[in-house]
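**User:** Here is a favour to ask of a fellow structure person. Please take any protein you like and set down a full record of it. No explanation is needed for now; the record alone will do.

**Assistant:**
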Amino acid sequence: MEEKEKKSPSILKRVMAILGIVIIVASIIFTIYLAIIGSDKFLAMMFVDLVVPVIIWVFLHFVDVFTKQKEAA
């Protein structure tokens, strides 16, 4: 039973993953909207589309690192 608990992702990781997907999809839809209307904020949204997934990945990586350190202690 302990092996199953170790393999299952934490609640925090699940919530962050779902929140990340929602943010990324909304950001892409908004970027497409800005491209269609020809807004000058389009490039800013392209930057957000690239940076947000990286920030989410870094956060999830640190959650893994800290949980492994906690388990080792």
Summary: The helical segments are 2-7, 11-37, 42-72. The first helix runs from residue 2 to 7. The chain has one domain: 10-72.
